[in-house]
Amino acid sequence: MSDTGAGATAASAVPEGVALTVDEDLLRSVDFAKDGDGLVPAIVQDATDGTVLTVAYMDAEALRRTLASGRSWFYSRSRKEYWQKGETSGDRQYVREVRVDCDGDALVVLVDQHGRGACHTGERTCFYRTIGTGPGVPAP
Amino acid sequence: MSDTGAGATAASAVPEGVALTVDEDLLRSVDFAKDGDGLVPAIVQDATDGTVLTVAYMDAEALRRTLASGRSWFYSRSRKEYWQKGETSGDRQYVREVRVDCDGDALVVLVDQHGRGACHTGERTCFYRTIGTGPGVPAP
Q1: What number of C-beta contacts closer than 8 Å exist between A and B?
Q2: Fewest C-beta atoms under 10 Å: which of A6, A66, B86, B104?
């Protein structure tokens, strides 16, 4: 029995996702038909610090897989196939919450991001480039 | 000269937006042509607390107006017209930063949200309904 060996095994294991508890009525209300392609944008946000990590697309099946597995599944518009985030890169997303917007055509997915981050470039967020900055006007 | 009168005038005035300083090269790199409709999703996020407030759509002109005015402009896919957030409701968004994602087909817009919030229902965020919740798996 080696503490080192046991530790290495535990550290390298990939944790299972945990299925979400689902509001079935609200799930049925998502308007996948709106855009004609059966997809809605899913904004993936870090559950711990609120960083918007990426935007990808889900159809009804990708959302079902996400809720059932507790890990994010998307549908690739270019490759026309389902993909599970991190399955190749190891940068997995474990889902804590899925929200839907007022008119049912966009999702927010709150995740625990594992690995390097969400972006294929190695950046933590896909939104690492700034087009413009200004002072805004702080709310009164 | 009445203090009350002067105060009332100041309180009811609508602040002007402030134009953003723009990275023109990065602005040109936004891939509006990707989806065929000339639009990209714009995720509007509260600059102060990170709440995802809403998702709307911008074409090149809506983005140009947003950067130039310092207030958020979108393009309505259903009404097929430009609209400036808060122009009717008074719930204006003053823009602090616009980011673009790794492949240039999505934007994050960081705003100071004035008024009640971003949602036409009166909620602060359009994402006020939760489809599913779970424990996630905290990152190691």
Answers
A1: 190
A2: A6
